[in-house]
Automatic annotation (TrEMBL):
Residues 39-125 form the Methyltransferase domain. Keywords: Transferase. Signal peptide: none annotated. Gene3D superfamilies: Vaccinia Virus protein VP39. Pfam families: Methyltransf_25 (PF13649). GO terms for molecular function: transferase activity. This is Methyltransferase domain-containing protein. It comes from the Bacteria.
Length: 199
């Protein structure tokens, strides 16, 4: 989907597309970190950026959908985040940050996109990437069904260079209690998680 299609989807939604909380595993990792500067890549309607800002992070949320960002900015706490309409392929932060988070960014060049956002992590900072795994198709979980844009641990591990120490890179199962969509979904989903620290 392109930016115009996502704008349409956000405008048609009743208050937002995604769940109000970030995925549980993202909350679990971020909760262990001292707040600093952060970028939420493909923030959508802002759930992860708002959660981080609420815990003291100076957060920038970027997305190519201006409609999604308008929903995010209108939420409680929305004025605590810097919302930026931008494409991950073109945008650059003014300076590296302490935390870069990307949830469910699926592109034809996903490995290259992950390598690019990894460059935004400051030395000593953390990168967290979570997305639908290719095994999610067979599992019947919610999400894209095009295997060429889905993740595997091998794909995400291979996107990083020697500057990063990988803490976790594995498949994780997300239950319906940790639904991605605002109105929930009944099935479990198989995701790939990458948690890495820049040396």
């Amino acid at each position: 989907m392109d930016a115009a299609q996502w704008d349409e989807r956000y405008r048609a939604s009743a208050g937002g597309v995604w769940a109000t909380q970030p995925p549980a595993v993202v909350r679990e990792i971020a909760a262990t970190l001292s707040p600093g500067t952060a970028i939420d890549v493909a923030t959508g309607d802002g759930r992860t950026a708002l959660w981080l800002a609420g815990r003291g992070w100076a957060c920038t949320g970027i997305d190519f959908s201006s409609a999604g960002l308008a929903l995010a900015a209108a939420r409680p706490g929305g004025d605590a985040v810097t919302w930026t309409t931008a494409d991950v392929h073109d945008w650059e932060p003014a300076a590296p940050v302490d935390l870069v988070v990307s949830c469910y960014l699926h592109l034809p060049d996903s490995a290259a996109a992950v390598a690019r956002i990894a460059d935004w992590v400051a030395p000593g900072g953390t990168l967290v990437v979570l997305g639908h795994d290719v095994e999610n198709i067979a599992a019947g979980g919610h999400g894209p069904t095009d295997p060429t844009i889905l993740y595997t641990p091998e794909l995400l591990r291979g996107a990083l260079d020697e500057r990063f120490r990988i803490e976790r890179c594995e498949r994780v199962t997300r239950t319906s209690a940790d639904a991605e969509l605002r109105d929930g979904h009944p099935t479990a989903a198989v995701d790939t998680l990458l948690h890495a620290v820049r040396e």
